[in-house]
Amino acid sequence: MAGGTTISRVLGFARSVILAAAIGVTTNAADAFGVANQLPNNVYAIIVGGLLNAVLVPQIVKARSNKDGGKGYIDRLLTLIITVFFVITLAATLAAPFLVSIYTTGWSDQQLALATAFAYWCLPQLFFYGLYSILGEVLNARSAFGPYMWAPVLNNVVSLIGLAAFVILFGADPTGARAIESWGPAQITLLAGTATAGVASQALILLFAWKRIGMKLNLNFKWRGFGLRPALKAASWSLGMVVVTQIGGLVQTIVASSAVSGRSSNPAIASVAAAAIAWLIFMLPHSVATVSIATSYFTRMSKHAHENRIDLLKNDLAAGLRAISVISVFATFALIVLAYPVSRVFVGEFAATAALGNVLIALMFGLVPFSFVFMMQRAFFSLEDTRTPFWFTVVQISMHVAGALTIAATVPAAQIVVALSALTSVTILVQAVIAYTLLSRRIGSLAEHRITQATTQFLISGFLAATVGWFVLQLFGGLTENAFAVDTVISSVLTIGIVGFVMLAVYIVALRLLRVQEVDTVLAALKGILRR
Fold first, then answer.
1. How far apart are CA 480 and CA 378, in angstroms?
2. How far apart are CA 26 and CA 176, in angstroms?
3. Which of 54, 112, 280, 307 could form a disulfide with 238 if both were Cys (CB 3.0 to 4.6 A apart)?
4. Rounded to an integer, what distance in angstroms lies between the CA atom of residue 302 and that of residue 131?
5. What is the DSSP string of 212-246?
């Protein structure tokens, strides 16, 4: 799983770099495409969070005890979900102008028109995201984890081909010299259409994976009297949770989009597109480590919860949290130290590098608690408890919305997205503390599993690695304009490789000196990935 995710994320970074070269990062066109391409993800998150993540794996694990091995239940449940996705996708596509308008503020009519045109092409991704998720979650429930993580590789390949064709045919425009009014149907179709084609290919290839494990999807619309009510009840709370999350995301996007008002005096101001790239970088270690680990443990925890083996569920949860923490802590320190060189890979001038780098630094402080919340949510879901995650998410989003509105009223345009990222880190930390407290009350104390002790050891090792990494970075001239670390894309990549390697070596040595067992597990996994 980690191998597939790693390759997918590397290709995803390449796609983001080419996209930045094609339409820029702190440009009006980039923000228009960023909003449009994010719309299907936002709507998809509501449906997936409500009907899939909290429902499919536990319910399918239970259904395997049926006489037909759960085949009839799976056909009916998936037919219901596919139908919901089709209807929602059709409605969302027709409502593209309205969706674009509620996610933006202060945009010109021309920029809104471009974003809407992009949205008409991008919103059909919603159906294919849903198809990918339901096909993949069934594979996960059957312990066939690999295809779900490798399918996005095809998505990125298709998107890269489309972006390369766009640059060849229409030229690169990293600084926004191409006026909004000059965008024509051919440019819009190629850029947004190939993005949707990539998502479609990612979903359809999983049908071959189904065939390999001897499964076939047969649509069955006979939903009454087949035990779908428990799944829908569990989905209702999770749906509410993700709706609340999307409200927070909507407020953040609106506030972030308002930063474009400051570009009249400073064109290199981070807004929607910069926030999206920072989130992409933030999600790299989360996707490679946390999602891979949590996905495998989710199936095991669901099985143990169904058998009422809470002791085994706690063992799985604690092992997952420690494995996630050892990777997330290093990623946090590494990306804080290397935020500017990493940002330089995506943008050109130093001012834009600093703008994106500051956003990334503020966001990275939330990585460890974000990963912890993700794993603990899966523990609640395995217990078929979607109500508790709803309430601790409500607390986090309420804090976030109040903070975002305060930022909109008090923070200068140039610092809005940085402040929003810092706010995200703080509210996620609060959410993690609440989730841990409530989960401990539900399944008993986790103190004997030494999660706090292990995380403290990881933090000490990470701080030592960051100190050494910062010193090595100064040998490259620091992070001033024209310094080697941020001078060109090539010099930035070299700096990332050298400093990152030194930091990783220091981190591993420190963990070994502290006799941390998880480092051996991680090293074995890395060897497996490299061997593949």
1. 43
2. 8
3. 54
4. 22
5. HTT---------TTSS-HHHHHHHHHHHHHHHHHH
d(CA 184, CA 187): 6
Q: Which amino acid is at 419?
A: A
How does pLDDT run across 106-141, given as a tens digit for each residue? 788 898 999 999 999 999 998 998 888 888 877 877
Number of H helices, E strands in the chain: 23, 0
Exposure string of 178-199, with b = 16+ CB inside 10 Å and e = fewer, is bebeebeeebbebbbebbbbbb
Question: Which tens digits make up the pLDDT trace of 336-385?
Answer: 999 999 999 887 778 888 888 999 999 999 999 999 999 998 898 888 78
Q: How far apart (Å, rounded) are the C-alpha atoms in residues 413 and 266? A: 10
Give the pLDDT confidence score for residue 182 in this predicted structure: 87
User: Do residues 147 and 2 make contact, with C-beta atoms less than 8 angstroms apart?
Assistant: no
Which residue would you say has higher pLDDT here, 270 or 27? 27
Which sign does the torsion angle of CA 291, 292, 298, 301 carry? Answer: negative
Top mean pLDDT of 92-106, 334-348, 373-387, 463-477 is at 463-477
Backbone CA torsion sign across 51, 52, 54, 55: positive
Q: Which residue has the tokens 């590397």?
A: 10
Please report the pLDDT score of residue 336 as a whole number: 96
Evaluate if residue 284 carries a pLDDT over 80. yes
Distance in angstroms (rounded) separating the CA atoms of residues 414 and 259: 7
Q: Is 152:69 a contact under the CB 8 Å cutoff?
A: no
* Residues 268, 351 contacting (CB under 8 angstroms): yes
pLDDT one-digit tens code per residue, 192-215: 999 999 999 999 999 888 888 777
Distance CA 387, CA 241 (A): 8
Q: What is the pLDDT of residue 1?
A: 66
Where does 24-145 have alpha helices with state H?
A: 28-51, 56-63, 71-94, 96-102, 109-122, 125-141
What are 52's two structure tokens?
């899939």
Quote the pTM value: 0.71
Residue 236 structure tokens: 């209702």
Secondary structure class of 15 (helix, strand, coil): helix
Query: DSSP string covering 361-388, please?
Result: HHHHTTHHHHHHHHHHHHHHHHTT--HH
**Can you list the pairs that 27-31 forms with residues at least 24 positions away whose Cβ atoms lie under 8 Å?**
27/173, 27/175, 27/176, 27/273, 28/108, 28/111, 28/176, 28/180, 28/260, 29/114, 29/173, 29/176, 29/178, 29/180, 29/183, 30/176, 30/273, 31/111, 31/115, 31/257, 31/260, 31/271, 31/272, 31/273
User: Residue 178 and residue 171: Cα distance in Å, rounded?
Assistant: 10
- The single residue listed with the structure tokens 């130290």 is 337
Residue 134: name the closest of 79, 93, 90, 184 by CA.
79
